Amino acid sequence: MIFLSTIYHDKKLTRITSLISFIGIILAVFVIKYDGDHTITSKYISNFIVMVFILIIAHITAEFVINSNKAEHSKILNAVEEKEKYWYGMMIDDLSGLYSRTALRTYINKLQDYKGELFIVMIDLDNFKKINDTYGHKYGDDVIRIFGKTFSPYLGDAFAVFRYGGDEFLAIIKSDENYANKLMTETREAFRQTCLSQLKNSDLSFSAGISRFSNGIPIADIIEQADSALYQAKKAGKNTAVVYGE
Fold it and tell me: Are 13 and 59 spatial neighbours (Cβ–Cβ below 8 Å)?
């Protein structure tokens, strides 16, 4: 019973089991003592001592097994936690809180067989170099954090955003063109409002270039199309979104 209790990795349960076993031996002694057909002999006493000794050894061994198992279990949990931290550090951009470029490569590999309507969007913060030069890099970091928080409520199966590099981001929208345009309009306004309330700056904005995904075109070409549309958005005066080919 004592060794079986180690399955549950619970010292309290093992101690209760050991106590019950010891009480059982004591009760057996009383039964022998008050049983008219038996008398307490030195043999019974020696057997009692041996049984108590065995119980003590069993209990010590059981607790040792539990401690060893817990130590091993702790090592496994630590290894899992370290792996999760490593994965999080690789897949999540620590400044924006959005997915990293490493995560993008993993995500894109799954898109080749996607059958539904899908758009790739290149997003660039307007005048970001000027922002850094004027207000400092810490201010620029705050702008990127606000950008990430702006998009967080929209993230899900149909929408993912990756930090592509510096102040440039890539979004993948699994929906139609109307939704893609609506999403860019809403997030641009939300970003502006948040920058106004938190940074007291109403001039912060971003531009977006949107390209339709097609199974017959390599992903790199579609990203290039989105980048071309982004260039058109910048040329058109910034703070807008342009669909490639329109």
Answer: no
Helices (H), the chain: 11-34, 42-91, 101-109, 128-135, 137-151, 177-199, 219-235
pLDDT digits (tens, 9 = 90+) for 78-118: 555 556 554 555 788 989 999 998 888 888 877 767 778 89
- Residue 69: which residues within 8 A CB-CB, separation 6 or more? 6, 9
In this structure, the dihedral spanned by the alpha carbons of residues 95, 98, 101 and 105, taken in order and rounded to 10 degrees, is 160
Q: What is the mean pLDDT of residues 218-226?
A: 90
Which CA distances in Å does 121 have to 22, 67, 178? 72, 54, 13
The residue written with tokens 């010891």 in the block is: 22
- Kindly report the pTM of this predicted structure: 0.66
- Report the half-sphere exposure of 169 (CA within 13 A, side-chain side): 28
Q: Phi and psi of 165, rounded to 5°?
A: 155, 130
Residues contacting residue 183 through CB under 8 Å, at least 6 positions apart: 154, 159, 173
CA dist 21 to 29, 64, 169, Å? 13, 18, 67
